[in-house]
Amino acid sequence: TPATLRDKYHEAHDLIIKAWTEPEPFSWNGKFTQLRYVNVWPRPVQKPHPPVWVPGGSSPETAEWVVDKDYLYAHLSMSGHKRAKIVIDDFHALAARNGREYNPYRVGMTQYVFVADNDEQAEELYSEHASYFFQKSLHIYRGFTDAPGYRSQRSIESGLAAQGFGRSSLAPPNAGWKQYLEQGSIIAGSPKSVTEQLRETAKKMRVGHLMILIHIGSLGHEATMRNVKLLGEQVLPNLRDIWPEYEDHWGIRPLKQRVAMATAN
Q1: Which of the ends of the chain has fewer CB neighbours closer than 10 A, N or C?
Q2: pLDDT digits (tens, 9 = 90+) for 5-31
Q3: Is 191 helix (H, G, I), strand (E, B) or coil?
Q4: CA distances from 60 to 72, 89, 132, 157, 202 (A)
Q5: Can you give the pTM of this predicted structure?
């Protein structure tokens, strides 16, 4: 039932946190879930529990809840970084009003990224598959995307519904490669160009976690793996120094003893 989804989500969250942090088996008698025994094994290594990332589109209730819990807000910016800036700026302002440290690492953002030897080759390799995705893969029946009760009145009134997953919010139906680049739906080009664009985007958006989407539409395995290789070898190493003055409290880090073992070997 759409109207109960948020309450059900919060109860599930409380159950997971307790399962991670309670050292002894316990029973759970919630409104939506009843479990006679909860006994997580193996126990999480991180204390008090693993970092929590909460995906969000534009719901003000989600942003407020994330700030209250001091979790990471992972914005599902499927429409690209230019449209996402409004939502992320609002989140940073909300965090500041609630006394949270300004820290880019408390925000994550999705972004389609495609790398080739040069800008012309990027268009040649990826434009057909981007068009396939934006023009053919987003036909969602409106009754499913906005069922009564799914979004609160506040979410509707916020005017941010265009940040969601409706087809028109991502790209005009007849847009082409140039339009995808201009509106920020896609970042593409040579390794140097993509590196510069991602650095500028991270700085402008004040985002510490870029969740890079490397496959789109009908893109094949070989082209996808080539994109992975170019990103991993020629782009990502040049992005790791963007926010040296801030500590990432929400990132996943290897265990210290494993780092020591790797260094010794």
Answers
A1: C
A2: 899 999 999 999 999 999 999 999 999
A3: helix
A4: 15, 13, 32, 10, 22
A5: 0.85
